[in-house]
Amino acid sequence: MALHFDILIIGSGLAGQSAALRLAQSKKVGLISKRALEDSASSWAQGGIAAVLDNQDSIEAHIRDTLDAGAFLNDPKATRFVIENSRRAIDWLIEQGVPFSRDEAGYHLTREGGHSVRRVIHVADATGLAVQDTLTRKVRQHPNITVLERHIAIDLITSDKLGLTEKRCYGAYALDNDSGEVLTIGAPHTLIATGGAGKVYLYTTNPDTSTGDGIAMAWRAGCAVANMEFIQFHPTCLYHPQAKSYLISEAVRGEGGILLLPDGTRFMPQYDARAELAPRDIVARAIDFEMKKRGLDCVYLDISHKPASFLVEHFPNIMTRCLELGIDIAREPIPVVPAAHYTCGGIVTDLKARTGIPGLYAAGEASCTGLHGANRLASNSLLECLVFAESAVETILEQAGIECPEIPEWDASRVVDPDEEIVISHNWDELRRFMWDYVGIVRTTKRLERAQNRIHLLAREIEEYYSNFRVSHDLIELRNLVVTADLIVRCALQRRESRGLHFSRDYPEMLQKARNTLIRKRPRRATRSGTT
Q1: What is the pTM of this model?
Q2: Kind and range of the H or E run holding 434
Q3: CA gyration radius, the chain
Q4: What CA–CA distance (Å, rounded) separates 48 from 124?
């Protein structure tokens, strides 16, 4: 089956949906969602969106905080570009009807780790969900947007695969998870908005959709990738057997929460003068060190000194979820551990959201714009989604008259139904476990090389499986995860220093000059439609 759109958007988070709504005013848009529209990492974001909205704040202060958190690896132009457009991005969300929290002074702004002032606008403690719900209703109702739920992109369709000399992306092949049919989706413009790769690790705050799909597809197509070694581990994921991926928002520390050892001793002041309000990389490493030194399963985040009414007002969802698990945060501390949270690197883009392949754009966590540097400042992620989605839209609308060539349909004539799907689940588990053990918060060259050897073995096994059997959702995700894991390790081995989120015992010092870790490849010729 073949479909054609003016623009194909892969991913239904904030970047994808905001771009779709802007483009649909004049274009026919196809929007691919791996599950339901609502199921994205954006909807899991609790804290809020950082923006310069208060007279006591300034663009220069926000830039300074972003550069400091990013260990000065940030691209100055990209950082200024995003922050200068922050108020405009928030105004657009308000126009869409997002019900941001208010107080007697206007919109309520909270403070999070790494920020020098209150500048995070939010909807209680479920900002991402509120934003996504608002946009999803509009996306579903828009006549110019075709939503393809329960579809997963397999690979991009590029000029290389079509035997054309002019380099360009012309859409993607996608699997319909319900029918098992592979769709051929043609479009002169394609936006990757697939999110990050948290599921490459055993413990993560991310939803199951975060499997590095866009990054892996773009890499196979020939895009440059940068700074994949910088995986942000959120310091405070709820430690409970029934809630392995539940995030305890940064805003809990921003509103006075303190980190404690099991005996009640506070430990963050000895690691950083900002204590619990230090950037995430510092807090996560401190927790990791204390847990390993003392043999702890977790540490504790305590905000019970605040009135219950305050907690109900500011953290209703966190309070409710913890109560469901038998934890009353108004009376006792919350058990927490670090968990993989955010992919700071990704597909290299410019300020117009363009990748190295004409017709292919990227926005959100899948991209590497230069904003985050070596460590993302809290609540800059949703802001980046909005600003670069709009930038991609403007770039696309500037172009006209680009036609799609004839695209061959997916060729499944030489593959058979899989006979041992247990291979997929075993490889998935093995990959996530050794990535957690060898490529986690604290790294060594020996651990990285050990991980790389295992990745190469798995990659060969997975590619052989992919070449001989019909594609499935799990196989596509596994194929993408192993590519993403390889990119993380390759970047980590190239960085011979400790900076931001990448801490190496072999290279504990930070070099004077900050450099990006940029890697490129030349795509191989296709062996069948959709493969590389």
Answers
A1: 0.91
A2: helix 422-438
A3: 22
A4: 9
Find out whether 172 and 2 touch, Cβ atoms under 8 Å.
no
Active-site position among 80, 280, 354, 447 = 280
- Alpha carbons 338 and 231: distance in angstroms, whole number: 12
CA–CA–CA angle 404, 222, 376 (5° rounding): 110
Fold of 2-230+344-397: FAD/NAD(P)-binding domain (3.50.50)
Distance (Å) of CA 180 to CA 32, 109, 140: 15, 46, 24
Q: Which CATH number fits domain 236-340: 3.30.70.20, 3.30.565.10, 3.90.700.10, 1.20.120.80?
A: 3.90.700.10
CA dihedral 251, 256, 261, 262 (to 10 degrees): -90
Domain 422-519: state its class: mainly alpha
Q: Are 49 and 92 in contact (CB under 8 A)?
A: no
β-bridge partners, 354: 361
Query: 35 catalytic, yes or no?
Result: no
In this structure, the chain runs to a length of: 532
Give the pLDDT confidence of 9-36 residue by residue, as tens digits: 999 999 999 999 999 999 999 999 999 8
**pLDDT tier for residue 524 given thresholds of 50, 70 and 90:** low
